[in-house]
Design brief:
Tetratricopeptide repeat protein; 0% strand; mainly alpha
């Protein structure tokens, strides 16, 4: 009984050691871990670049493939949010003076674009909820603005 336990313990230690050795010496997985770090701190562009490089080295690296997809989707959400902020500033600048009919049409068009763009965002359970909530809030702000003005 003692012999089988010690054999099992040695086997477990060897498996852990060889798994560690594999991940430590495999460049693709090293890049994947770096990509994961950058993804977690919110640097989706750097995560995308590193995960693309990792996939080029090993197309079967599931971690890199998952991070590649996560980073692409997160970048789409981030770009949507940034576009929303940019358009809100543009609308504020337009509305500081007298708002002409063409300005109203431009504002309506901006609202329509932002509302429509939201429908093209890919919803994924892998994406941070705060990012999804901020994108949804951005869309709702444009819906509210459109409803109030038109």
């Amino acid at each position: 009984m003692k012999k089988s336990r010690s054999t099992a313990a040695i086997l477990a230690i060897l498996i852990i050691f060889f798994a560690w050795l594999f991940f430590e010496t495999n460049t693709s997985y090293q890049l994947s871990f770096k990509a994961k770090f950058y993804y977690e701190i919110g640097n989706f562009q750097k995560s995308l670049e590193l995960s693309e490089e990792a996939v080029k080295l090993d197309i079967y690296n599931k971690m890199a493939n998952t991070l590649l997809n996560q980073s692409k989707i997160s970048l789409e959400f981030t770009n949507y949010i940034n576009d929303g902020k940019k358009y809100i500033k543009m609308i504020e600048n337009i509305s500081q003076g007298e708002v002409s009919n063409s300005d109203k049409e431009r504002i309506k068009l901006i609202c329509d674009i932002m509302i429509d763009q939201y429908t093209f965002l890919k919803n994924s359970i892998l994406i941070d909820d705060a990012l999804k909530d901020e994108a949804k809030k951005t869309k709702e702000n444009f819906e509210k603005l459109k409803k109030e003005l038109f």
